[in-house]
UniProtKB/TrEMBL annotation:
Residues 28-72, 209-233 are annotated as: Disordered. It comes from the Eukaryota. Keywords: Coiled coil. The keyword Magnesium does not apply. Residues 28-53 have a biased composition (Basic and acidic residues). Residues 54-63, 217-232 have a biased composition (Low complexity). Residues 300-394 form a coiled coil. The gene is LOC100830301. This is Interactor of constitutive active ROPs 3. The keyword Nucleus does not apply. Belongs to the ICR family.
Length: 453
């Protein structure tokens, strides 16, 4: 369902944009129709001016006819004409001053509207930057947290490898100790066999000594029994040779046992030294790995706290931007009301001006001057009317765009609050909101350029 909703959301955005484009096209069509009607009114005004010129020509002809009558008028009539002329000039000056005041007010209102639109654009740019900065900071902090987690995982793997190596060294040490114990057992067995050989050798020496004593006792009888003595000498020689062989074998076995025992002790000392050295190195590596794991855990906790603070700051900035946008929208509404009120007053003044009675033209020069002044005043009033209408349309368009931008940015703020929930959850919505913001900015720039023209 969520995938279908995400697929349906860009389509809804596209339909909304198409509806807005249709509305803008309708407004453009209405503006063209109003422009056409203004052109028709201008043509009618030109026709009226031509008729006024014709009337002025006829009036000038009548004035030529009445010049003779004017010469016969009394001084009282001339004074009255002079007074009427003075009143007409004063009224023209008052109308001119009012027209200049309205033009100045209109220029001031135009400048205020342009400044307000510039302020809205600047706030939009600041809001876009403010929306991008927390996201970039959050992405950087998330990358740092991922890196720290990877380092923590590597440290844990190194710690596990150090522990396995430590266990392997312990097993090697136990195996070397078992080998030393077996060598010591073999040495004790050799010593037992040597003691047996020594015992046999002592017994052989005792037998040899007994035989020598017997030989000494029987030496006196050796002369009488030569054959028997020769036999005893041969037995004694055999016994001596056997004794010498046993002693030589005993010395060799003793030397060999001593050498093997010494080698076993040296091997045991060497294995013990190597085991102690390796155990020290592994203990140091294990301690450094534990300290690095503790440091990485502390860094991870600090980064997570910084990420939470950055998210809180981004939320606060979005709330402040929302408040300032509401205030700007209220100010634009007030300015639009003032502009509409002033436009109504301008229309009332125009109607009042058109409904006033015309002063009779007394001479050809005065008629031409007054007609030209009247034409200029009417043209200026028509221009002000068209400009005020354009201003009203531009202000209404700006208010509509502000309302649309406010709704879209609200969606962005709501997604910014759930930053931890998913990193790419609202990607399509953000792209649509950015496109809408760019479109609104382009429309505002076009309205500002049209207004400057």
């Amino acid at each position: 369902m969520s995938a279908e909703r995400e697929k349906r959301r860009p389509v809804m955005k596209l339909s909304e944009l198409e509806s807005q484009l249709t509305q803008l096209q309708d407004e453009l069509k209405k503006a063209k129709e109003q422009l056409h009607s203004s052109e028709n009114s201008r043509k009618r005004a030109l026709q009226e001016a031509e008729e006024a010129r014709a009337q002025a020509a006829s009036a000038s002809a009548q004035a030529r006819d009445s010049e003779a009558q004017l010469a016969e008028l009394s001084s009282v009539e001339e004074t009255r004409i002079f007074e009427l002329r003075r009143l007409s000039q004063e009224r023209d000056r008052s109308w001119q001053s009012e027209l200049e005041a309205m033009q100045k007010q209109h220029a001031a209102d135009s400048a205020a509207l342009v400044a307000a639109m510039g302020e809205v654009h600047r706030l939009r740019v600041q809001l876009a930057r403010a929306d991008r900065k927390p996201q970039e900071a959050a992405e950087a902090q998330l990358a740092t947290v991922d890196e720290l987690r990877a380092k923590l995982k590597e440290s844990e793997e190194a710690e596990a490898q150090a522990r396995s190596l430590h266990e392997e060294c312990k097993q090697q040490l136990e195996a070397s100790r078992a080998t030393i114990d077996s060598l010591l057992t073999d040495g004790s067995k050799l010593m037992d066999s040597f003691s047996l050989v020594v015992t046999e050798l002592e017994e052989s020496r005792a037998k040899l000594k007994a035989q020598e004593e017997e030989m000494a006792e029987t030496s006196s009888a050796a002369k009488a029994a030569g054959e028997s003595s020769g036999c005893s000498d041969s037995e004694a020689a055999e016994l001596r040779s056997a004794l010498e062989d046993v002693e030589a074998r005993f010395q060799e076995e003793k030397i060999l046992s001593t050498v093997e025992t010494q080698c076993a002790y040296e091997l045991m000392d060497q294995l013990k030294m190597e085991s102690d050295l390796r155990h020290g190195k592994l203990a140091a590596a294990l301690g450094s790995a534990k300290s690095e794991v503790i440091f990485l855990k502390a860094s991870l906790f600090d980064k997570e706290s910084e990420l939470r603070r950055a998210q809180d700051a981004a939320k606060k900035l979005q709330d402040e931007t929302r408040t300032s946008r509401d205030i700007t929208a209220d100010e634009l509404k007030e300015q639009l009301r003032g502009a509409l009120l002033e436009n109504g007053q301008l229309k009332i003044e125009l109607q009042k001006y058109e409904s006033e009675e015309k002063v009779p033209v007394k001479s050809e020069a005065e008629a031409a001057a007054e007609t030209a002044k009247k034409g200029e005043t009417e043209a200026e009033l028509r221009r002000l009317r068209v400009q005020a209408e354009q201003w009203r349309k531009a202000a209404e368009t700006a208010m509509a765009l502000l309302a649309v931008g406010k709704g879209g940015n609200g969606k962005v703020m709501d997604r910014g609050d759930s930053l931890d929930g998913g990193k790419y959850a609202g990607l399509y919505d953000e792209l649509d909101d950015d496109a809408a913001a760019r479109k609104n900015g382009n429309v505002l720039r076009r309205i500002s350029g049209m207004w400057k023209k």
